[in-house]
């Protein structure tokens, strides 16, 4: 199968797997020890956790602390539902946030910042921002890849006495994370790390109540036994991402050029300028995307967010851009990255284009 769904998850990096294996060992080894234990094996596991924390933090702005979570969904919910206490209506976020941020905002009576046809928020001076609240803004959108002006919004949000929460899941490890946010959510499996581990970065001086009570792990904020294996895999993936960031970015640009040339008759959804080029969301008149996925089973691609693909609803992101129902049903998301070769991409796109043209010809 050709894999073009990098926004949903990425292949595990060999370096991450290698870093995890010692902490998955059984009897006869010390690798299974609890990092909270005070014996030698436990202390060794604790050191591994802290070294990985440093590697993860190295890709984030200075002046903050990484708290490991089960993933970015937990991190976003922590910040928006059990985070700093705010007044009713004190939450806001862009209309194309991930559902893990969008639902907490909407259920607590927050406001949504609209986006234009390119999927970009307005200048912060034109947006309705709460006072003494929290504003959520994705760095890179998971469905259309648009890059938002996080640093500019951070300044405007701070002027209102509010905090900026940045969902950096799709940008972390792929580009520099801008300074300015107060809270940053990230996930390991989007940068070739393991699933089940993410983090919430908290700027120094920002106080969070504990998410989970119990043993006081994660600096007293998230009780529960930390997995050295998952954390070590996250740290290794972060180190590789730091080393390969420029090479990975250049590779993605080459793949984007190949893909857009082969899909020259398709329309790109979202800005083509302010965009991460490993995300290509396109539509084609006369194509039914659901049927296309059924017809091209040798290619893994998606209709939008993997988290909402089974809901039966059209993408809230594409609707926020102003696309019609017909246009959203004709849209697909293609994601590629470090381990995608040009040959694989061309072969996969060839199958998609061929199937799409068969649909159009039958409908003609």
The domain count comes to 2
Radius of gyration equals 21 Å
Shape: globular
Model regions low in confidence, pLDDT < 50 over at least 5 residues: none
Helix share bin: 25-40%
Explain this structure.
This protein is of the alpha/beta class. The protein folds into two domains: 2-7 and 244-363, Alpha-Beta Complex (Aspartate Aminotransferase, domain 1); 15-240, Aspartate Aminotransferase, domain 2 (3-Layer(aba) Sandwich). It is built from ten helices and twelve strands. The protein has a seven-stranded mixed sheet, sandwiched between helices. Helix 5 links the parallel strand 5 and strand 6. The longest helix is centred in the C-terminal third of the chain and has 35 residues, at 228-262. The protein is globular and about 70 Å long. The two termini are 30 Å apart.
Describe this structure in a few short sentences.
This protein is an alpha/beta fold and 364 residues long.
Blueprint of the fold:
Blueprint: E1 2-3, H1 14-20, H2 40-57, E2 64-69, H3 72-81, E3 91-94, H4 99-107, E4 111-113, E5 134-136, H5 150-159, E6 163-167, E7 183-187, E8 198-203, H6 228-262, E9 267-268, E10 279-283, H7 289-295, E11 299-300, H8 316-320, H9 325-329, E12 331-335, H10 342-363
Parallel strand pairs: 1-11, 3-4, 3-5, 5-6, 6-7
Antiparallel strand pairs: 2-8, 7-8, 9-10, 10-12
